[in-house]
Design goal:
It is a single chain. This protein has about 260 residues and is mainly alpha-helical. Helices cover about 35% and strands about 5% of the residues. The N and C termini lie far apart (about 115 Å). The relative contact order is 0.07. The longest helix is centred in the C-terminal third of the chain and has 31 residues.
């Protein structure tokens, strides 16, 4: 099955779209809220009997407004209270660059802080907090205190000065890294490679190289043997210059005394 959404009433126009000058001024909050409400209603019809659950339009709009202020607007951006209450990330305007996946965390790291951009880290914590089920332990958690099986640590803020620990919540929210089938990851050497058997020109692959610190590098080597003649010539030039300047100084002194 499939579904599609379209809005033929207005035309979206933003000449700064997807550029660093796109500051969210062209985003229509009412349109976003209407789309979110429509998607919520469609999902509820699939998972619940007709009329059993309804969409609260006011709460949907309030949620969209909160996310717009944090994820779209330049101010407050990631300095908003919603983000800062869940994750430890720098404030200000959020960078939407996808980043580079240099390595894959282990099973515990996938559910933690490792390997996630600030954007993904916030969304993961926010969705986990909103979809948490009752019956969780609610235990405090951080990098050393892990959650029981079936729970994830939500709201752990390592850089926070006050109350940095998170709480263990029971939720089905999962973080699943995905990449093209042509790529293979070697956990022993922490390297990526292209699988020639899976590589197909019809399925183009785009990847960005990740260069560790110091790679590439440039080293300069000075050859001492070839510089000896140059050094001697330099000394000779200095000596001749000194002799000539001294001779001129004496000649000028004698001529001055003659007057």
């Amino acid at each position: 099955w499939g579904w599609g959404m379209a809005d033929f009433d207005t035309t979206f126009s933003n000449r700064f779209y997807n550029s660093f000058l796109d500051r969210g001024d062209g985003v229509d909050l009412d349109t976003l809220a209407a789309v979110a409400q429509g998607v919520s209603g469609a999902v509820l019809q699939l998972v619940a009997p007709a009329g059993a659950l309804g969409v609260n339009a006011t709460r949907v709009r309030d949620t969209v407004a909160d996310l717009e202020a944090c994820l779209v607007k330049e101010s407050p951006g990631f300095s908003c209270d919603l983000v800062q209450s869940l994750v430890s990330v720098p404030g200000g305007n959020i960078a939407r660059y996808v980043g580079v996946m240099s390595s894959l965390p282990d099973a515990e790291g996938i559910a933690g802080q490792e390997g996630k951009s600030p954007y993904a880290l916030f969304l993961y914590n926010w969705m986990a907090s909103r979809t948490a089920e009752s019956g969780g332990s609610g235990a405090r958690c951080d990098g050393d205190r892990r959650c029981p099986s079936g729970e994830v640590c939500v709201g752990w803020r390592p850089a926070a000065r006050e109350d940095p620990k998170g709480r263990c919540l029971r939720t089905n929210t999962a973080y699943v890294p995905a990449w093209p089938k042509q790529l293979r990851y070697d956990a022993r050497t922490y390297t990526w490679a292209v699988d020639a058997d899976e590589d197909d020109p019809k399925d183009p692959l785009w990847a960005e190289s990740f260069w560790p610190v110091g790679v590439p590098s440039l080293t300069l080597f000075l050859k001492g043997n070839d510089d000896v003649p140059v050094f001697i010539a330099g000394l000779a030039t200095v000596a001749v210059s000194f002799i000539v300047s001294e001779a001129l100084r004496r000649a000028y002194t004698v001529r001055v005394k003659s007057f």
